[in-house]
Specification:
It is an enzyme of class 3 (hydrolase). Helix 8 packs antiparallel against helix 9, helix 15 packs antiparallel against helix 16 and helix 19 runs antiparallel to helix 20. By secondary structure, this protein is α+β, with helices and mostly antiparallel strands. Helices cover 36% and strands 15% of the residues.
């Protein structure tokens, strides 16, 4: 017993001392909601059940498995004078006259609960969802199984008496073509059924064994216009032409319809509904003109023209009289307040069922995929809302400290985080990939076998698909909220990686995603294994190992396994309670922790390590491959674009050369090496990378060599910045001086990256010079954050005005992380300067993003360096949501721990 105690104590002390250094710098920023060891274990995607995983829809819900049914609701404002089909709210849209004023997620937990808000002229729509398992009373329960049921609460508020037409639907969708000859629509609904109960509930079922939608009668608000219903009934009794009845729609009628779309995508459903609405409105126009002709004769009659003008003016004042519906004009009408079209009996089986109901604001309608009482569902919504508020406050306690932020600022941060979580989308389909061979790229493109993928989206409107460059930043936010979700996403990205370590930079997986890819950028859909992308997945990687250390005392795992082997659970709780800060009650917990460590090793060291090796092998010479002299920056740039780097139009060498060396790529590779070093140390896994070829010492040495190369070959003292270069042979005999680097200097994000990633020594003169440039209004500083390119550069605000001046939140986040975690913390000649810069930069960034959110209702892709106004895509709720972490001052694990020397 004594010997065992000595062994355990000795092993514990060794592990404890080795872990203290890694934990000391990060413990003060650990989130209040502790992760669980189970968050790091592989999970089957279908275990998450249904959620808002349908990309880029205002209200679309599905499970994370191929060809899962899609549940959705779309709507249009029947009182708006613009064409109804143009204002049909189905797919997220922020551009154009017909777009809403703003939209976004106000609350979302990344899985079961969320509130989408769409702000329109004089009114707003809120669509709230909660997914739940049978017998579950709270969304925080973990033992009730996957949430297979879904409930929606749709609420319209604002201007009273506005007519809003809602269209609920269920789609037997197909994520990808099965083969070239079979249409996915052939699968269809095995046994479609539509019905309206005596109580007025609408039921849609694609299969006899499964209810897909039950739309309940409104809890608040009238169903359309009672006058509309009276007119319709009266028209059925009187067949004589009447001007009012010929144009007045049946606002109080529920319309139910089944149909078939060719490829089984949500975009096809929205397009089909728009076509129905347009066709129905044309019918109403024809009825009006026919009625006028019957009463006044030929259109040349002055009375005809006067009557037509009066009716047109009246209908412009009350557009809902023109309101179209989804009914088939050729089919027989229903009876009473139900207009149910007969289900097809021949040809293709229907794969979409729809129900249209028009209500007047303010209204509240509940729909569900189950038969629970409406009162029970309302209680679920209220409970889920309370739980979400409590969890957000517990996850971001710094936002609630006295004197820190007000209620509106906290609501902004909550919406920013929720919008990243709400963008998490599931895709299934093949990757459009460049194949070997000669000829144009379009002729060499092929599609791989289908893969499944879970990712956050940069923008639900502009970029409703996965981007590798963005995803590392996204996962910093996701990991703060849920380690399990972040692990799932990281595992998904690394799961689609090829054996050689290549990860596609942009993923349009499946029929829906490819159909929404911009036609003028279709060439970018083809992914090339020769072209890399910044390895941003390393940004959240170490946060996972720090979270694992928080979930379990990993440093003592070996000692605890020895104890379990000898005596099982007998003395485990006593030893851990006495020697550690936590209690481990059972050897089952120890075994689970070991499984979590091994799974994390495989994910971060084997898989992510292979991606590191791929970049070394393919981006030879330390320059971004894929640049060519034919693809020039548009407008007034006239230099090759560098799409692979992420900094597309940032100025570099004016020509492409195989001897180019790019500062940002060198910095990323040094950073990745140091992060792998830290991860190996955290997991006590020296040399555990793929192939075992990289030990901790070798990684550290490699990272230092790259940093030295930056300092000695790429620093330009005259310009006061790091510079891209082209290596030129010299006539010198010494091998160390056989090459000279010709500099191309442009001060901006890429050349600032050695500091932004924390690679430079705190006391190096290079650090001081860059800190001075960052604070200089004539170079990088603005009242809204750091510019992407110095204002003194000749290419400032030229090119595509993308990375040539605008302020971007993710790179400002890296700057703040480097200042907060290293340069403002470590003693040195520039510490005071770094501290002052950190305080002013943090305030500048978050305040401007917040003010623009208040002004426009959106987070933006980037911000104007002269006015602070948002620019580019909106809502850009991907990496711009890092503003919430800036407010919370959370930079844990982003800057590597290595020491210079």
């Amino acid at each position: 017993m004594v010997l065992r105690s000595l062994i355990v104590c000795a092993l514990w002390l060794l592990g404890r001392w080795s872990a203290l250094g890694a934990l000391a710098a990060d413990s003060h920023t650990a989130p209040a909601v502790a992760p669980s060891v189970a968050d790091f274990l592989p999970r089957a995607p279908e275990s998450d059940g249904i959620g808002s995983y349908a990309a880029g829809l205002y209200a679309g819900y599905r499970a994370r498995r191929p060809d899962a049914p899609l549940y959705g609701v779309m709507w249009f404002d029947a009182d708006h004078p613009l064409a109804f089909e143009q204002r049909l709210r189905s797919h997220c849209r922020a551009e154009g006259e017909a777009a809403p004023q703003s939209f976004g997620w106000r609350r979302h937990d990344g899985h079961r609960y969320g509130v989408r808000e769409v702000v329109e002229d004089n009114w707003r729509m809120a669509v709230e969802h909660v997914a739940y398992a049978a017998g579950e009373t709270s969304i925080s329960e973990n033992d009730a199984g996957a949430p297979t049921n879904l409930a929606l609460r749709v609420q319209g508020t604002g201007q009273e008496g506005r007519n809003i037409s809602l269209i609920f639907y269920v789609l037997a969708q197909a994520d990808e073509m099965v083969d070239a000859t079979q249409s996915p629509a052939a699968f269809g609904c095995p046994q479609p059924d539509t019905a309206v109960t005596p109580g007025g509930d609408v039921r849609l079922a694609c299969d006899a064994d499964r209810l897909h939608w039950r739309v309940r009668r409104p809890l608040r608000g009238s169903i359309g216009s009672t006058a509309g219903r009276r007119v319709r009934k009266k028209r059925r009794r009187d067949s004589a032409p009447r001007l009012d009845s010929s144009v007045n729609s049946d606002l109080g009628v529920v319309h139910v319809r089944a149909a078939s779309v060719e490829h089984g995508t949500a975009l096809e459903v929205a397009t089909l509904v728009g076509q129905w609405l347009s066709a129905h409105r044309r019918v109403r126009v024809q009825r009006l003109t026919s009625a006028l002709q019957a009463q006044y004769g030929e259109p040349t009659d002055a009375r005809y023209e006067q009557a037509l003008r009066e009716h047109w003016e009246r209908l412009q004042m009350n557009p809902s009289q023109w309101m179209p519906d989804i009914a088939d004009g050729a089919a027989p009408a229903g009876t009473g307040d139900i207009a149910q079209q007969p289900l097809p009996t021949a040809g293709k089986r229907p794969n979409v069922l729809l129900a249209q109901i028009t209500v007047r604001t303010p209204f509240e309608i509940v729909a569900s995929t189950g038969d629970e009482p409406t009162e029970t569902l309302v209680q679920r919504f209220e409970s889920a809302a309370r739980e979400h508020e409590h969890r957000f406050a517990a996850t971001f306690p710094a936002l609630y400290r006295p004197g820190s932020f007000g209620p509106e600022e906290r609501a902004f941060a909550q919406s920013a985080v929720s919008s990243v979580l709400g963008s998490l989308s599931y895709f299934h389909g093949g990757i459009v990939t460049e194949m070997p061979g000669d000829g144009p790229l379009a002729q060499r493109a092929g599609i791989t076998a289908p893969v499944s993928h879970l990712t956050a989206l940069p923008s639900e409107d502009k970029f409703p698909r996965g981007f590798l460059w963005d995803e590392g930043f996204h996962q910093l936010v996701v990991q703060r909220w849920s380690t399990g979700l972040a692990t799932d996403c990281l595992a998904s990205w690394l799961g689609i990686m090829r054996e050689d370590g290549w990860i596609p930079r942009e993923l349009a997986l499946g029929l829906e995603a490819r159909s929404r890819f911009p036609a003028d950028l279709a060439h970018l859909m083809v992914q090339s294994p020769r072209i890399g992308n910044p390895p941003t997945l390393f940004l959240p990687a170490r946060r996972l190992t720090l979270a694992l250390q928080q979930a379990f005392p990993i440093a003592e795992l070996d000692a605890l396994e020895i104890l379990c082997d000898k005596d099982g659970d007998m003395d485990l709780a006593e030893y851990t309670r006495t020697l550690l800060d936590v209690e481990v009650a059972s050897c089952r917990q120890v075994a689970q922790a070991r499984a979590a460590v091994e799974a994390t090793k495989k994910l971060l060291l084997e898989r992510l390590g292979q991606h590191f090796t791929y970049l070394l092998q393919t981006q030879s010479g330390m320059h971004w491959h894929g640049r060519d002299n034919e693809t020039l920056v548009a407008r007034d740039g006239h230099y090759p674009t560098t799409l692979a780097s992420g900094f597309d139009d940032f100025p570099r060498a004016p020509y492409v050369d195989s001897n180019e060396r790019h500062v940002d790529l060198i910095a990323w590779m040094a950073y990745a090496a140091f992060m792998l070093t830290d991860i190996q140390a955290d997991l006590q896994a020296d040399g555990a990378m793929a192939g075992g070829s990289w030990s901790t010492a070798a990684l550290s040495h490699f990272g230092r060599n790259l940093t030295e190369a930056l300092l000695h070959e790429h620093w330009n003292a005259t310009e006061g910045t790091f510079c891209d270069g082209v290596a030129r042979p010299t006539k010198r005999a010494e091998p160390s001086t056989a090459l000279a680097v010709e500099h191309f200097c442009h001060l901006g994000y890429p050349t600032l990256l050695p500091l932004l990633l924390g690679l430079l020594p705190a006391n190096a003169p290079h650090t001081g010079e860059l800190l001075r440039a960052m604070a200089d209004p004539n170079r990088l500083w603005t009242p809204y954050g750091l510019r992407s390119l110095s204002a003194a550069d000749p290419f400032y605000l030229r090119g595509e005005r993308y990375w040539t001046g605008p302020v971007w939140v993710p790179l400002n986040y890296l700057a703040l992380a480097a200042l907060h975690e290293k340069y403002a913390r470590e003693p040195g000649p520039y510490q005071a300067r770094a501290r002052a810069l950190y305080r002013s930069l943090r305030d500048a960034v978050w305040r401007n993003v917040y003010q623009e959110y208040r002004r426009t209702g959106y987070l933006w892709e980037h911000y104007d360096p002269q006015t602070g106004h948002g620019g580019g895509g909106r809502p850009f709720t991907g990496w711009t949501a890092l503003t919430a972490l800036i407010m919370d001052e959370d930079y844990r694990g982003v800057i590597p721990n290595f020491k210079e020397g």
